[in-house]
Amino acid sequence: MKESQFNRGMLNFLKKSPTPFHAVLNMSAILDKAGFQRLSESDAWALKKEGRYYVTRNGSSVIAFTTGQADFPETGIRMAGAHTDSPCLKVKPLPEKVSHSYLQIGVEVYGGALLNPWFDRDLSLAGRVTWLTSEETVESALVDFESPVAVIPSLAIHFDREANKNKSVNPQDELPPILLQVEDNDEALFFRDILADRLRAEHPEADVAEILGYEISLYDTQPPAQTGMNREFITGARLDNLMSCHTGLMALIGASGDLPCLLVCNDHEEVGSASVSGAQGPFLEAVLSRLCPKAEDRLRAIDRSLMISADDAHGVHPNYAAKSDPGHGPLLNHGPVIKINASQRYASDSETVAAFRHLCRRADVPVQDFVMRSDLACGSTIGPLTATRIGVKTVDVGVPIFAMHSVREMAGSRDGFYLFRALGQHYA
Fold first, then answer.
1. Which domains are seen in the chain, by residue range?
2. How far apart are alpha carbons 362 and 356 in whole angstroms?
């Protein structure tokens, strides 16, 4: 695969995946097309050698794997991991608010989002809706309004002369977006009615008697793009961490299939991963127990395995270079980053770092190092959580980006392809 083809596919995936539910739906379609067989956790599994399989949980996490030709305890499993969620604004259960003729909806902040970039954007709504049918059954489906249907207008500088010096955001009072304008004599408008109308438009076959619940997020409708005078950058929403999901998926699909390989993409990393579909949950452990039903075989396989936890890294920002450690400031378009932290916020150690560095050398891929400044707090990833729960040797890596957790992030156009090649070597 050429770099240009890889980037086109990644941009399309980012555009079509406004929520973790949509990301997993799109990954499932790609896996189906590549000949992977879908499994259900509620069914008995009859796995075969040289098989290609995948399973989802909650519609927002996915594990795809190949069984290879050899026995798991003898070869181990080449693993990679990423996460499907990104910081965003989620609609509250009873969100309606009419103020001065404007219908607004209340939102909660999901994850450690940069809030100021959400103002003055053309926003849309997407997510999962669950409803009751006329026959008293419960069903769910995804919706995506696609077009701009909401905006969070900034306060004019005339009312806040200090806005450019010190701007903080109160999520409760300042983030409710405007959806439409209403008149005093209009009938009461409810967000669930709006959702029901959209659900029927997208799914005409749906028998919607009553909306029982939803998980709906706001997202920026501006599509991702390849930017820069030489098209050397990629900008868009949810680069953290859908870039890693797509990259790992493409690498797994391109693997020879001779050795056991696995990709896990968990939800809820941005809020701590403590959920049924998060890295602190039992999803990966449950799948591994079905791949290797005997405990001793499973422990032997895990001891011979390596997990590459892929999550975007901080590039050194030219306007804020002092925020980076002087010796560990990764540059965009200079290759994937190995992330190291003495307090085990990253799971990398000397042996797993060496293993990934060797993979990059074999794939002819440049590699960089990241260590947080000693006077700043360090984030974390699914790496330490997976290593703790499963006991698998793990290295934390990622593509360097700017504006992490903003509504629009920025990466180098070559780095995703570099990581793809490194993961391809891992799966070879």
1. 3-86+237-427 (3.40.630.10), 88-220 (2.30.250.10)
2. 10
